[in-house]
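Read as chain and fold; for instance:
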Amino acid sequence: MMEDNVVILPVVTRLDVPVERIINAAMEADLESIVIVGYDKDGEQYFASSIADGGTILWLFEKAKKDLLAIGEL
């Protein structure tokens, strides 16, 4: 398999990354909680969370938004 020789670099990229690579990295990260938002192949939104509290989920999204905006300042 070609990917056996690929080294995954921990860098920011402007290219899309395969879903499987992101999910596998999350599985290896030993996460305490997770929120997943995406689109299926029909374009329908998908949402799942291990966190029950909507306020906590929203706070995580806002923190992620702040972090994403800071990347543009590099």
Summary: Helices lie at 19-28, 54-71.
